[in-house]
Amino acid sequence: MEYSIAELLLSGIKLMLIGMTIVYLFLVLLVWVIGITSKLLNRYIPEPEHTPGASAQAPDVESDQTEIVAAITAAIHRYQNQ
Q1: What's 45's DSSP letter?
Q2: Which pLDDT tens digit goes with each residue over 34-46?
Q3: pTM (two decimals)
Q4: CA atoms of 40 and 53, how far apart (whole Å)
Q5: CA 38, CA 32: separation in Å to the nearest integer?
Q6: How far apart are CA 67 and CA 79, in angstroms?
Q7: What is the DSSP string of 6-41?
Q8: Residue 67: its pLDDT value, please?
């Protein structure tokens, strides 16, 4: 049994539309489930209150940079002395 080009194209388009519909419905369901989960989590496990006076101190950027430079210098020195 041989199919014409038109029949094959029509069959391919039908299959494509069915597949795209299934994927779209799955994505809608996924967005809905994530939204419900977010609402439930916020309801039963609220985020802690932020107090303005109890902010954490920012790390000292200068000391971090010094440590990074020292590590890079040590690595280069070790590589050159192999």
Answers
A1: S
A2: 999 999 999 888 7
A3: 0.52
A4: 30
A5: 10
A6: 18
A7: HHHHHHHHHHHHHHHHHHHHHHHHHHHHHHHHHHHH
A8: 87
CA 30 to chain centre: 15
Domain map of the chain by residue range? 1-47
- Cα distances from 21 to residues 8, 15, 18, in angstroms, run 20, 10, 5
pLDDT band at 64 (very low <50, low <70, confident <90, very high): confident
CA distance 81 to 78: 5
Alpha carbon 40 to its chain centroid, in Å, reads 21
Burial pattern 61-82, b for ≥16 Cβ within 10 A else e, equals eeeeeeeeeeeeeeeeeeeeee
Interatomic CA distance for residues 31 and 33, integer angstroms: 6
Structure tokens at 65: 């940079």
